[in-house]
Every structure is written in C-alpha cells, then in structure tokens.
Backbone:
C-alpha cells in the first residue's frame, strides 16, 4: 500500500536515497540534481559546474532548515516517489517569471516528480499530486501552479503531464516556450 507524507528533516535520508537509487537512464544528468535546480538562481554555467555532492549537501541543508518542501511516497518503509511542491516564492529560478496576478495570492507550485523505476505507471505521481492539492488547501493556499511541458517527451515528463493537472481542475492560462502554465483555484 502506498502512503504519502510531507518531507521533513526526519525523512531527509529517505529523500536522498531515492535520488541515489532512482534510474535516470533517460536523463543521466538529473541523477545529481537532488531537486535543487529550481531552488537556485545561479547562472546555467554555475549550475552545470555544480557536482552531485554539492547538490546532495545543499538538499540536506535545505530539508534540515525547512527550506525545501514536498511529498514522499512510500511502499511500506521504502521511499518510492517524490513531488517537489511548495510555496512558489521558494523557487527563485521560476518566481521572477510568475505573472503578478498569481503572485498576489498565496500560491503553491508543483514542479518535479521522481518515481522509482519499478513503481512508474502505477499512479504514484497522481497520488502525490492529489496529496499536494489537499495539503495546500489545508494550509491556506489560494491556488496551485503547474508548469508541465506541452509534449509528453520522456525527458520532460518529470513535471507531470498536462492531462493529470487538467483532470484535477487546473486551467490553462498561458503557454511559454512549450510549457503550459496551469492554475488551480483551491
């Protein structure tokens, strides 16, 4: 049975282990990201010069300091999935591009899914998203933002498919460079 829980410092090692063992054969460079890319605002040159250990240490520090939010999926005691989701202001690589009307309200963002290879195509990403929506609503968020790519290219599916958001009441408000900007009122 799959259970979903919020990320906190007591689960930091589970989060890190998920990245250590997840299969990124389709995009090997992601294996060392530890979901830090959108939490940085450094140049692309600086980002690509960072190594796996730097990102891992940065993720551990951010989790320990409650600066990184999201949700973990477990099969028993085994961590099998992750959704990077939190307040849109905590994503400096994205926040400058968020339209002002969206910024004016308390907004959560769901941006990255990581699912263990043996657990893919079993609805775990959908379970994580459903939990994130409920959590945001319970914690006073007025809306949720999602930025999936328009085309379901394997390397870009980490943001989720537009259809999974649309099924849950997200509305397409704009597109930019093959990215759909979807918003759900809570």
Residues:
């Amino acid at each position: 049975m799959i259970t979903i829980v919020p990320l906190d410092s007591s689960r930091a090692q589970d989060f890190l282990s998920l990245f250590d063992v997840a299969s990124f054969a389709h995009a090997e460079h992601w294996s060392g990201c530890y979901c830090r890319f959108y939490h940085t605002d450094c140049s692309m040159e600086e980002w690509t010069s960072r190594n796996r250990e730097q990102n891992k240490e940065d993720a551990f520090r951010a989790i320990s300091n409650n600066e990184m939010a999201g949700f973990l999926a477990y099969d028993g005691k085994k961590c099998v999935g992750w959704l990077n989701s939190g307040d849109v202001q905590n994503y400096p690589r994205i926040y400058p591009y968020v339209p002002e009307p969206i910024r004016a309200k308390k907004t959560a963002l769901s941006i990255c899914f990581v699912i263990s290879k043996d657990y893919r195509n079993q609805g775990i990403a959908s379970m994580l998203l459903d939990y994130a929506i409920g959590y945001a609503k319970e914690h006073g968020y007025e809306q949720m933002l999602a930025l999936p790519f328009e085309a379901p290219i394997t390397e870009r599916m980490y943001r989720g498919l537009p259809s999974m958001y649309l099924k849950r009441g997200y509305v397409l408000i704009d597109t930019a460079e093959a990215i759909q900007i979807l918003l759900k009122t809570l």
User: Anything to note?
Assistant: DSSP finds six helices and seven strands in the chain. The first helix runs from residue 12 to 21.
